[in-house]
Amino acid sequence: MEHEYKIELSKRRIELAHERMNTAGILLDAGDYKSVANRLYYAIFSAMRAVLALDGFDSKKHSGIIARFRQSYIKTGTFSTEMSKIIDDLEVIREDSDYDDFYIISKEDVMLQYQRAEFFVSEVERYLQVQYSQT
């Protein structure tokens, strides 16, 4: 993958992460908490893919993206282990919200997850800005 393309792809994916965070905010205001959980998960998923784009890596499976991000960036200390916990929690909440007809997430819980996803995306963006400036 050409270097310039990797950077542009990474920038597009972090932009998608921000778009999904914005959508989550709108849904939060509307009281659609299960949909907020979905958008928060996809925001951090897009952020992970933004980082991995710089490596020329992608996967059709969510598990592949998550495993590679953990292996290459959390286990190496580039990102904190708290980010791994955020991934785990948002993945479970998203699956429950999407597939469990009786799952209920409270406003308080979804607001906490919103803050955690904001932290995740901002940490990734901070890392990406450094990477972009080194090219």
UniProtKB/TrEMBL annotation:
Q: Which domain of life is it from?
A: Bacteria
- HEPN domain location is 12-126
Family assignment? Belongs to the UPF0332 family.
Identify the PANTHER family for this entry.
Answer: UPF0332 PROTEIN TM_1000
User: What is this protein called in UniProt?
Assistant: HEPN domain-containing protein
